[in-house]
């Protein structure tokens, strides 16, 4: 019963795709990923070198320099929300790269933590529209994974010209402090380093933390010197009002004072070192992380940029799972879906992926139908698998490349609405961590059913070719102008001017929807958490799965001897 029957999957690249096709596909993706790298460099630059010099002149580090100094030397970090507000301008014609805050999963003293750092090169770390939502999203990830949270606070408060878009509402700035409270109530450690301006909401942000450090030039105030001068006609400096002399020695709102950023970061590292170590090695059972037999970097040449082209989904799994070993569950059922268990970074996880190309049709033996869609048996299969992962405490990875649910009279007779509801209910009530990757298409209700962002995956990642939409642009144009078309989708207008108006209108709808499906649009609106290069997916997923196992005692994690997954296999075997 304890045996996990992992088996080799995948093939050498040369057997999957020829050299020419591989090179062409990799080159096409490289163009898109270079745009990703260029835009990331643009965001990381903040408001430019002049602002960096200004920060350095004050004897301070920038937010990203603080992150680099805080994390373990030589380890990567995984930034989420890089492209929030990308391409938007605000009052005064200014931009807010990354919404003025850096949020990233990083390794500190061997432990994965969530770092939330105000970008002091962007309006002195002010909060913009969507900044509160981005901070809350990072806090939510930390809460779900029980990751310690480190706040590096250097915040001048709301960007006042846009206050109406950041202050009120359910997810407005005040909700950050509720998330502080929920983290505290759940026993998730919070450590704050106050290293500069900390005004109004920025002053509240660190207070509920378990440990609060202040540098000598930091201050925390409900209102700064300008507001006090205007309201009370008192001339005082912000340090007089709420510096370390006040909050470390009088109010008790901070625990310790340190001379500068470097000392503060060293102190925070010591605090993290005192926390319980990660449980991941225990759950690895002495088995370390092993590279796939086929390199993850090959995914860049195996995944066609054109969403209409098919590929072998098992080759994707073979380049994500340790040693390219995988236990596929219920392979004879719902051929359009692949689900099973593999190790990633030495830890077990469940995987669900859409099979592409043509698949078998159980209703008509010998017939073939399009993959990349949800049919009755596939929905039932992944519903059962999702429930088993939740029962067994396995983190669940959804790899989406889906065009939606099957449609038509037969689909309705088979009750796909009810089957879909069952899958949605399952994913809505799961407590095991779920992570979603939009490989290419993420269309219609299929995007929802496969744990899209509305169904609360801990993290949703996109690639440079991801497309989120209800339907494709051409299909939507036809639906929009359906009254002007015959049964063969030909324009029925007799008048040339009317015909031309329909042609132009359909073209506008198609073009606009194609633009809306750009993953940067989704990332800007917080409709996806991060855009990542395809070759980096394994590293991302290995880190997220490790984070799922790091904290102990807060969720169900069962050893393979008592997995309901084995029951599922045997029951399905009996049916066969």
Q: Could you explain how this protein is built, in words?
A:
With 576 residues, this protein is α/β, with parallel strands linked by helices. A hairpin with a 7-residue loop joins strand 12 (358-360) and strand 13. Helix 5 runs parallel beside helix 6 (175-185), helix 15 runs parallel beside helix 17 (416-429) and helix 19 (473-480) packs across helix 20 (496-516). The chain is globular and about 80 Å long. It starts with 6 loop residues before the first strand and ends with a helix. Residues 226-233 have low confidence and may be disordered.
Largest sheet: 9 strands, mixed
Tally of distinct domains: 3
Q: What structural category characterises the helix and strand content?
A: alpha/beta
Q: Report the end-to-end length measured between terminal Cα atoms.
A: 20 Å
The total of helices stands at 23
Overall average residue pLDDT:
88
- The global form is globular
CATH topology of the largest domain: 2-enoyl-CoA Hydratase, Chain A, domain 1
Total E-strand runs: 20
Calculate Rg over CA atoms: 26 Å
- The CATH class of the largest domain is identified as Alpha Beta
Helix content: 25-40%
CATH architecture of the largest domain: Alpha-Beta Complex
Low-confidence stretches: 226-233
Spell out the CATH superfamily of the largest domain.
2-enoyl-CoA Hydratase, Chain A, domain 1
Taken as a percent bin, the fraction of beta residues is 15-25%
């Amino acid at each position: 019963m304890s045996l996990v029957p992992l088996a080799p999957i995948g093939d050498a690249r040369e057997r999957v795709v020829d050299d020419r096709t591989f090179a062409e596909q990799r080159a096409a993706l490289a163009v898109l990923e270079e745009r990703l790298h260029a835009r990331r460099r643009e965001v990381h630059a903040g408001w430019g070198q002049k602002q960096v010099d200004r920060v350095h002149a004050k004897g301070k580090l920038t937010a990203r320099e603080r992150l680099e100094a805080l994390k373990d030397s030589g380890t990567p970090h995984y930034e989420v929300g890089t492209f929030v507000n990308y391409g938007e301008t605000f009052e005064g014609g200014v931009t807010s790269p990354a919404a003025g805050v850096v949020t990233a999963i990083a390794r500190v003293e061997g432990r994965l933590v969530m770092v939330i750092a105000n970008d002091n090169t962007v309006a002195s770390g002010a909060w913009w529209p969507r900044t509160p939502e981005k901070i809350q999203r990072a806090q939510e990830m930390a809460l779900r994974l029980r990751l310690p949270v480190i706040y590096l606070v250097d915040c001048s408060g709301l960007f006042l010209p846009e206050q109406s878009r950041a202050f009120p509402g359910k997810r407005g700035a005040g909700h950050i402090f509720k998330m502080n409270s929920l983290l505290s109530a759940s026993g998730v450690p919070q450590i704050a380093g106050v290293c500069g301006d900390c005004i109004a909401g920025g002053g509240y942000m660190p207070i509920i933390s378990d440990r609060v450090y202040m540098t000598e030039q930091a201050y925390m105030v409900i209102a700064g010197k300008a507001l006090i001068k205007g309201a009370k006609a008192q001339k005082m400096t912000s340090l007089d009002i709420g510096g370390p002399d006040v909050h470390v020695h009088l109010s008790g709102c901070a625990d310790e004072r340190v001379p500068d950023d470097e000392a503060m970061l060293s102190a925070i590292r010591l605090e993290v070192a005192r926390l319980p170590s990660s449980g991941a090695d225990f759950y690895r059972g002495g088995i370390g992380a092993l590279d796939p037999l086929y390199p993850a970097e090959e995914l860049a040449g195996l995944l066609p940029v054109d969403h209409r082209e098919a590929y072998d989904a098992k080759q994707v799994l073979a380049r994500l799972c340790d040693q390219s070993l995988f236990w596929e569950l219920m392979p004879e059922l719902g051929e359009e879906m692949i689900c099973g268990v593999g190790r990633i970074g030495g830890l077990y996880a469940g995987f669900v992926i859409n099979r592409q190309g043509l698949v078998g049709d159980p209703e008509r033996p010998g017939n073939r139908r399009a993959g990349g869609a949800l049919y009755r048996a596939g929905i039932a299969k992944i519903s059962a698998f999702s429930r088993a992962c939740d029962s067994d405490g396995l983190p669940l990875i959804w790899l989406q490349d889906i065009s939606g649910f099957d449609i038509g009279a037969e689909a309705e007779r088979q009750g796909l609405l009810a089957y879909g509801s069952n899958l949605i209910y399952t994913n809505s009530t799961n407590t095991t961590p779920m992570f979603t990757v939009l490989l290419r298409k993420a269309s219609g209700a299929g995007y929802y059913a496969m744990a899209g962002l509305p169904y609360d995956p801990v993290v949703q990642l996109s690639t440079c070719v991801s497309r989120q939409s209800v339907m494709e642009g051409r299909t939507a144009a036809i639906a929009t102008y359906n009254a002007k078309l015959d049964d063969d989708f030909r324009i029925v207008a007799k008048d040339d001017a009317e015909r031309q108006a329909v042609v132009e209108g359909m073209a506008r709808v198609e073009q606009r929807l194609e633009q809306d499906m750009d993953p940067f649009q989704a990332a800007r609106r917080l409709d996806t958490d991060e855009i990542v290069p395809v070759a980096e997916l394994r590293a991302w997923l290995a880190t997220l799965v490790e984070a799922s196992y790091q904290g102990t005692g807060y969720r169900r994690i069962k050893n393979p001897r008592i997995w309901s997954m084995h029951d599922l296999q045997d029951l399905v075997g009996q049916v066969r």
